[in-house]
Amino acid sequence: xxxxxxxxxxxxxxxxxxxxxxxxxxxxxxxxxxxxxxxxxxxxxxxxxxxxxxxxxxxxxxxxxxxxxxxxxxxxxxxxxxxxxxxxxxxxxxxxxxxxxxxxxxxxxxxxxxxxxxxxxxxxxxxxxxxxxxxxxxxxxxxxxxxxxxxxxxxxxxxxxxxxxxxxxxxxxxxxxxxxxxxxxxxxxxxxxxxxxxxxxxxxxxxxxxxxxxxxxxxxxxxxxxxxxxxxxxxxxxxxxxxxxxxxxxxxxxxxxxxxxxxxxxxxxxxxxxxxxxxxxxxxxxxxxxxxxxxxxxxxxxxxxxxxxxxxxxxxxxxxxxxxxxxxx
Length: 329
Description:
5 strands
């Protein structure tokens, strides 16, 4: 290539993006190659967490925030310029480059967007924790909430999640799962402030991780399980060792809906192999109890079955209303 054609070469711009959720310095091999092969490396943020690691690797980084025109000029002559993007990206720069490219009046350098590090699965959970920290500190309402004050919202969100599942609405399901997750993070953030027994979201996650590993010896240990029934046996056996309960009724929340409560009691009795007669009594309550026990024995969730029937009843009510049929006089 002669000098004239070299001077006319438009060069190359590499926009290097990194994830703040990954430890600084952990960059992909193509990113390191681009950095070492660049004629210039620019970064508008002098406090960018990657800069100490780049300089330790022998890469000179100039603190500069060029305009699109200035960046194109820096690439003239076939030069490669790497721009280390800030946490917000480089919207002004990329918009300016797009505008110049669309004008057709500028010989544009080769443009490349190079992700240097990627989010790990679950990385957005860290964002949720950070957002919750700020809300707890700065929101007048959130900063005053307590576990007891939020309890009702946990119940409401759980019911809304069940409704989304029953409706089969995927968008609604995703949203309601987020609302339930918020309750977990919110309560965990409040728990950090307890003067006697504080714990954090990491303690909550660590506890459930340990429990899942311990109760799945067929996955993490030497046990074997090839059927769902064998998995349930492992679960119940390890749970019994952990809890050391004196009664099969321990741990069953009495505040849950009546049919669900009856079915849970029946399930515990059946699993334990106990012969427990139903209490004798008259009235619809005892009739419902007997029906719930029979449903559980047949593998039917009576609470879910009643909700299905109730929703069908609701649809019939709406049908009557839409037809304008009023009460019989």
